[in-house]
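Person: I have long wanted to understand how a fold can be written as tokens. Underneath my words sits a plain record pairing an amino acid chain with its backbone structure tokens. Those tokens are not coordinates but codes from a learned vocabulary of shapes. I should like you to check that the lines agree and flag anything odd. The protein I mean follows directly.
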Amino acid sequence: MVIFKNKWFFLGLNVLLVVLLFNIRAPEKDLFHFINQLFYIAYFYLLLGLLMLVIRGGFFDSITYSFRRVYHRVAKTSDYMEDWKTKPLPSENINGSVVSFFLFQGFFLMLGLMGLLLLYYQG
């Protein structure tokens, strides 16, 4: 996708989002609450990226195919023009560049999080 080409720009936007959330939501302006806000954003990207990686790997394909087959046999108003065998599976719907974008964002935000945690526990 064209929108995900510049990963470093979006990393900067995510850091700005963390700063904005920190200024809006933090009851006290300290490093502890900044780390919390960075955690929310970093692990959102990481969790979504890993979920898409599992889906792209084909983990849910057989389950989806089985549900489609059972539904086609059990449905009372079956549409004979709909071919359930040729519908794309979930692994075919997820683009690899989107998965790498989310994993990239999550990984680098997590690296920043680990650096800030190291700084926090050193002092």
Remarks:
- The chain has five helices and no strands.
